[in-house]
Amino acid sequence: NAGVTQTPKFQVLKTGQSMTLQCAQDMNHNSMYWYRQDPGMGLRLIYYSASEGTTDKGEVPNGYNVSRLNKREFSLRLESAAPSQTSVYFCASRPLQGVHGYTFGSGTRLTVV
Amino acid sequence: AQSVSQHNHHVILSEAASLELGCNYSYGGTVNLFWYVQYPGQHLQLLLKYFSGDPLVKGIKGFEAEFIKSKFSFNLRKPSVQWSDTAEYFCATDRGSTLGRLYFGRGTQLTVWP
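Output (structure tokens, whole complex):
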């Protein structure tokens, strides 16, 4: 099925551990995004990639890094996890042509203890 | 500055009641507007979008929204809600840039009692 695939779906980390969240889309979309969702805060943009080879900071980039590996894949890395990074992370993509919103992945629920 | 404001944080209704969720945007130029729904434990799904033409747009599951440019509003409506409409609803805009990111409101939690 076409769409945005995120892995893993759930993860528990200890403070200071590192991990990479994977995201891949098979819709040939140009733009890809990483958001975090916290209760009462809505969705906050962490990083985005307007096209292959480019990445830019969003509203809350501290503590994260990203890699746009190719047109399909956009990964999010936590180098040294902190409890404040406990959240649900969503990857999304958007096509270049037409007026379209995002297609979202199913999310990664991350707990940092 | 917040680009999108959703006035109601939590709305509670009984089945068959009518729904209107408020959304205001602060961008002054051409805008494209979206409503997303997030069912419990799931990701966001597009309900409807407005980009031009008829300001009354219809989406899936009986939802509609009206774009009122003079009021900078894009309110979501449904004549008769069902228990299955219990979800969180997000309004968003891309500020007219089809290449750019979306700016989301903080969401409105809708609870429908059977």
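The radius of gyration of chain B is 13 Å.
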